[in-house]
Design goal:
By secondary structure, the chain is α+β, with helices and mostly antiparallel strands. It has a domain of 121 residues: Beta Polymerase, domain 2 (2-Layer Sandwich). It contains seven helices and seven strands. The strands form two sheets. It has a five-stranded mixed sheet. Strand 6 and strand 7 form a beta hairpin. The protein is globular, with a radius of gyration of 16 Å. The relative contact order is 0.15.
Length: 178
């Protein structure tokens, strides 16, 4: 009989990382937004936790000018900044593997809305911004995240109306594969 699933452990590990990072960045006054699959997970889980699908890593959007402050702020919280293979990341020193790292994205949220606060107090990209990011990348996992957000009613007519023609066409494609 399973009492704790691998999924539950993974979610706990990711939220431990997020909470440590949020504490470090809040203390240093560094603004950030959780983006990517974890942001989709947070938005969907607040509507219907049973439909939330986890990703394997954490992505943060930050201002490149804050990189040095971020690198210094996270060190006491068990993270080390690294730049490897063209990727900026924070590696958890307890588990120093690139695949478990926090990926840093600079300037990826053009014309973004103010972030929203999750129930846990995390600064998360708005649904509208996240939908645009996911429809920009449009990889399979991005389409899945869009489908998940749509399935719980997060993609409203207002958000849809703000999309470019290309993004509305992509949203139609995603909805056709439900």
């Amino acid at each position: 009989m399973l009492t704790t699933t691998a999924f539950d452990r993974h979610v706990e590990q990711l939220f431990d990382i997020l909470n440590r990072l949020a504490a470090a960045l809040r203390q240093a006054g560094v603004e950030y937004q959780v983006i990517g699959g974890v942001a989709a997970f947070i938005h969907v889980s607040e509507r219907d936790p049973r439909l939330a699908r986890m990703t394997r890593d954490v992505d943060l959007a930050i201002d490149r000018d804050c990189l040095q402050a971020l690198a210094e702020a996270v060190r006491p919280f068990g993270f080390e900044y690294r730049h490897a293979a063209g990727v900026d990341m924070l590696v958890d020193t307890a588990q120093p593997k690139a695949r478990s790292a926090v990926h840093l994205v600079f300037g990826s949220v053009p014309d973004c809305s103010p972030p929203v606060r999750s129930a846990e107090g995390l600064s998360v990209a708005s649904v509208a911004d996240l939908v645009r990011m996911k429809l920009t990348s449009f990889r399979e996992n991005d389409r899945v995240h869009v489908r998940d957000m749509d399935s719980v009613g997060l993609i409203t007519a207002e958000i849809e109306g703000q999309l470019s023609d290309l993004f509305r066409q992509r949203l139609v494609q995603v909805r056709a594969t439900e």
